[in-house]
Design goal:
mainly alpha; 17 helices; single chain; two-stranded antiparallel ribbon; 4% strand
């Protein structure tokens, strides 16, 4: 059975037309859809196995990996295995020399990023695989966007706590662990978290990624409007920063022109709906980077101060870090009166030092390089992973990176799958490497 196969006609329905050669099989669509569903709709759910929180997205990652390898449609990239070996060695050394390091944190790191050594087999129709993944993510993100908008409107009629904290509807053993800001007010209203997600910032980030994909490849105005409105109702700057980086990154003339058009449309949107949606709230957050106790300060400034105090002891901390899982303890022991966040970049440097964090970043950059996916989207996702939240050990975001970036085709495979000159290519595929 092939991950990208031609569906055979049913013997019972002889007149059923066959799918185009290379189209994703029904099983492949089901597995990919299950991964996206685990990311977008099951973030609040998980199981605890032996004291270890097991999220459904982690299970989905390995189901996808096992399916692709079993059907021989994924291959193992030997250069990526080499980079992964460097990563594992550096992380192990950091763990071995630091007595307070967490073996569980190290294990989770290695488990989460092991599937990143996989690549699509060259014989797979690269364009059809990529188009299916991007379209399916966009379709499911639309459902999430509508759920978030409905949640926002229902708060004026329904005051039940489950409206903004869905995990209260499930038994304790099905609730994923962790501390999150699920219910947050913005002025006189509650920020939308998409109903299914843990935080408004997560909702904002996932919708921003969907909006950027839609903008680059499909350009359907109705969907762009829905995504923009959903992002606005999250009242979170996380998605805005991801979108801005994807737009203003100098990846080509088309990208720059697209940025000017979108920024102009955003300005008009703000002028039209600023009062109705209280969008002035966003402008009030611009001073957060210099204001202690705010989200912006906790995410971008406080981690720098934490690194300054913990960078020189013990003597190997600068190069090899304090060991996996130690930044949370350091934040508690900091004994400050304001919140300190642990974005990926800060966690990498504090726990793994310059050597370990360099090895991990090099491994990720190697998986991003040479992909046919638009550079704007790759840069936006890289920024999201590094700076938008504590995503280093989040299986939801790792699953998203795996499907959208790591398993996207190479530029060479994408071009090789181009339609013949006599065949009109779909509009989206003409922008595959823009």
């Amino acid at each position: 059975m092939s991950l990208i196969t031609m569906d055979a006609p049913s013997p019972r329905v002889a007149a059923r037309p066959a799918a185009p050669a290379g189209a994703p099989s029904r099983n492949a669509k089901g597995v990919v859809t299950a991964v996206f569903v685990s990311i977008l709709f099951l973030a609040n759910l998980g199981l605890t196995v032996g004291g270890f929180p097991l999220k459904f997205s982690l299970v989905a990652i390995y189901v996808l990996a096992a399916y692709g390898l079993w059907t021989r449609n994924f291959i193992v990239s030997l250069p990526s295995v080499a980079f992964y070996g460097v990563l594992a060695t550096a992380a192990w050394v950091s763990t071995a020399i630091n007595p307070e390091a967490s073996a569980g944190s190290l294990s989770l790191l290695l488990v989460l990023y092991a599937p990143f050594v996989l690549r699509l087999h060259p014989r797979i129709n690269a364009r059809q695989w990529m188009e299916f993944c991007l379209r399916r993510y966009g379709d499911l993100a639309m459902i999430l966007a509508f759920a978030g908008m409905l949640q926002f409107m229902l708060q004026f009629a329904i005051h039940a706590p489950w409206l903004f904290d869905i995990k209260q509807l499930f038994p304790e053993f099905l609730r994923a662990g962790g501390n999150y800001n699920t219910v947050i007010a913005a002025g006189g209203v509650m920020k939308s978290n998409g109903f299914f997600l843990r935080e408004p910032s997560s909702f904002s980030a996932l919708i921003a990624i969907a909006l950027l994909i839609e903008l680059v490849y499909f350009k359907r105005l109705q969907r762009l409007g829905v995504f923009a409105l959903a992002m606005a109702l999250s009242y979170s700057g996380t998605g805005i920063l991801i979108l801005l980086l994807g737009l203003i990154a100098p990846t080509g003339v088309k990208a720059m022109g697209r940025a000017f058009v979108v920024l102009g449309a955003a300005f008009v949107f703000f002028l039209l709906f600023a009062d109705a949606l209280n969008l002035w709230f966003f402008l009030g957050r611009l001073n957060e980077f210099s204001t202690v106790g705010t989200s912006g300060y906790a995410r971008f400034v406080a981690p720098v101060n934490l690194l300054k105090t913990g960078f020189y002891y013990p003597e190997w901390a600068k190069l090899l870090g304090h060991g996996p899982g130690t930044i949370d303890r350091a934040i508690v022991f900091a004994n400050v009166k304001f919140e300190i966040f642990d974005p990926t970049w800060a966690k990498l440097i504090y726990e793994y030092g310059l050597v370990g964090s360099g090895a991990i970043l090099l491994f990720l950059l190697a998986t991003f390089a040479g992909r046919a996916l638009s550079p704007s989207i790759r840069l936006a996702l890289l920024y999201a992973w590094l700076a938008s939240g504590g995503l280093l050990l989040q299986s939801d975001f790792c699953a998203l990176l795996l499907l959208i970036v790591v398993l996207s085709p190479s530029v060479a495979a994408f071009k090789a799958a181009s339609p013949k000159p006599a065949t009109a290519a779909p509009r989206w595929s003409q922008r595959g490497v823009s």
